[in-house]
Write a structure and sequence with these properties.
The chain has 127 residues and is mainly beta. It has no helices and 14 strands. Strands 1-2-3-4-5-6-7-8-9-10-11-12-13-14 form a 14-stranded antiparallel sheet, with no helix packed on it. The protein is elongated, with a radius of gyration of 21 Å.
Length: 127
C-alpha cells in the first residue's frame, strides 16, 4: 500500500489493479483493456479497439462502438441501437421491434412475425 492508502496488485497474468482509499478501482488487463469500477456500483470497460461499455447499477448498459454505433440495453432485456447513419432500432422485452431510418421510413415487427412498413413517401405496406 502507498502512503495515501492506494493499493496496487499485479496478478500472474500481468493484469494490474489499483484500488483507491475511496473504493474506486482500475484494472488494466495485459491485453490493454481497462476496467474501472466505483463504489456506486457503476463500471466502465474500455477496449483497445475503442469500444466503451458503461454498466449502471440498475443493470442498464450503454455501449459505444468505434464506428459511432450506440447500444443501450436495459435490465429487462429491451434495447435501443442507434447507428451513425441515423437508423434507430428499438427492441422491447416482448420481442416487438421498431426500426426508424434517417429518411423517416419505419418498420415495425410484431411478436407474431407480422410486419408493418411505412416508406418515406408515406406508403404503408403490411406483411
Amino acid at each position: 500500500k502507498a502512503v495515501d492508502g492506494t493499493e496496487t496488485r499485479i496478478d500472474p497474468k500481468g493484469n494490474r489493479t489499483v484500488i483507491s482509499p475511496s473504493g474506486d478501482k482500475t484494472t488494466r488487463l495485459a491485453d490493454g483493456t481497462v476496467i474501472e469500477s466505483w463504489p456506486s456500483g457503476e463500471k466502465r470497460q474500455t477496449f483497445t479497439d475503442g469500444c466503451v461499455i458503461l454498466t449502471r447499477k440498475d443493470g442498464t448498459t450503454e455501449q459505444k462502438d468505434p464506428d459511432g454505433t450506440t447500444i443501450v440495453t436495459r435490465a429487462d432485456g429491451s434495447y435501443t441501437l442507434v447507428k451513425p447513419s441515423g437508423t434507430r432500432i428499438e427492441v422491447q422485452s416482448s420481442g416487438e421491434k421498431l426500426q426508424t431510418d434517417a429518411d423517416g421510413s419505419l418498420i415495425r415487427t410484431f411478436v407474431d412475425g407480422r410486419k408493418m412498413q411505412k416508406e418515406a413517401n408515406g406508403v404503408f405496406i403490411e406483411t
